[in-house]
Amino acid sequence: MTDAPYTPPKVWTWDKENGGKFASTNRPIAGPTHKKELPVGKHPFQLYSLATPNGQKVTIMFEELLAASHTGAEYDAWLIRIDGNQFGSGFVDVNPNSKIPALIDRSGDKPFRVFESGAILVHLAEKFGAFLPNGGPERAECLSWLFWQMGSAPFLGGGFGHFYAYAPTKIEYAIDRYAMETKRQLDVLDRRLADNEYLAGKDYTIADMAVFPWYGGLAENAIYGDAGTFLDVQSYKNLQRWTRTIAARPAVKRGRMVNRTSGDPAGQLRERHDASDFDTKTQDKLEAKS
Question: Burial of 33 by CB count in 10 Å (0-12 exposed, 13-18 middle, 19+ buried)?
């Protein structure tokens, strides 16, 4: 470790940006910074999101519901860029924590908000009676792995991902600390998937939808630059098998495209308001028209 020693002050104060990607939008207070109302489309569900791993969970869920003929799950997906738009007054009203994804359920008499990706998955699963076992050990196993993801992914994203890919300087101690924890988590998944087709057992559930964008993305070496090589993700054979299975699902392919703003333009559907948008409004087609 070569960085200079740091002695914390008795009371921390916010007097400068902390550097690195997203520094300009980080702040130690909540609430809106500006007034901006959210758009509302025609469908029963209004999703405000971005295709980060957390955002992908919900768009995958919607596309899986629609693929399973739950027509009441039609949704509008509006793009919320993480460049200060998350602090608009309308978005803060939907999610006081200013994080994507956030949902307005307008399917009943009175619209209401649901925020936090895990809460949205459970809400939709219960509403449509899909991808969540009704009870017993199967339901407990599904919810256990769902909440495993909620507790574990911050070590992958805010820990390893931040210090490996986004921090303004490379800190050996921090990278080693979180690389060790991330590899431990990969081993947890690999051991579980050695004897189970999916995380909750024999059936595909919201647990898989929650874990896949984070750990499947890492297994594909598709997040945090070349982090997959650094962590030797190919050595987790059971995780690789599960990742290929989930990634091949048509609804997952569609869900990963929604609200995406990076990568291949043909894989970016920045806003989704109709199923036909996948054929006519991907970024490559919009750019060709303009």
Answer: middle
Phi-psi region of 107 (alpha: psi -120 to 50; beta: other; left: phi over 0): alpha
SS3 85: helix
Q: Which two tokens stand for residue 155?
A: 């070590």
- Please tell me which residue, 209 or 26, carries the higher pLDDT value: 209
CA 54 to chain centre: 1
Closest CA relative to residue 274, chosen from 71, 53, 81: 71
Give CA–CA dist 31/9, Å, rounded. 26
Question: How many other C-beta atoms can be found within 10 angstroms of the C-beta atom of residue 48?
Answer: 27
| Rounded Cα–Cα distance for residues 278 and 223 (Å) | 23
Is residue 151 exposed (0-12), middle (13-18) or buried (19+ Cβ within 10 Å)? exposed
CB-CB contact of 50 with 268 (8 Å): no
Instruction: Say which amino acid occupies 112.
Output: F
Cα separation, 120 vs 67, in Å, equals 18
CB 62 within 8 A of CB 125: no
- Could you report the per-residue pLDDT of 18-61, keeping only the tens digit for each? 666 766 678 899 999 999 999 999 999 999 999 999 999 999 99
Is-contact 58 47, C-beta < 8 A?
yes
Q: Which of 42, 64, 65, 43 is nearest to 246 (CA)?
A: 64
